[in-house]
Amino acid sequence: MGTVKVLIPAYKPGNLDAKVYPHWKDAEVFTEIELRNNEIYSVKPHILSSDTLIINLVKKEKINYVITQSLSIRALELLNRFNVIVLTGKIKTVRDAIEKFKKKDLYIVSLSKTKLD
To answer: Which H or E run contains 59?
Structure first.
């Protein structure tokens, strides 16, 4: 698998045992997990200031995946524009989310637009 970076919205303190925040936008902290050869290499919590956009963090840190319980259509479109794969599933903690990621036990969130006939 090489090196991948995963970003997960969480409650403080944003470590592996932190609970996953229920929505992408308003998270207290965003936990960045770097995996190398499918093993945790680093855990870095990011607390955003009020004027910091999440997408700027995603671009700066070169995030590959986001794991979240919910997010807006706008957020999904923006993340997809930067080639970030959005995943979801039954997750409770950051550690739980990463373990399920490693086992490929999550679901890809995608947006399908179909014109009404």
So the answer is: helix 54-61
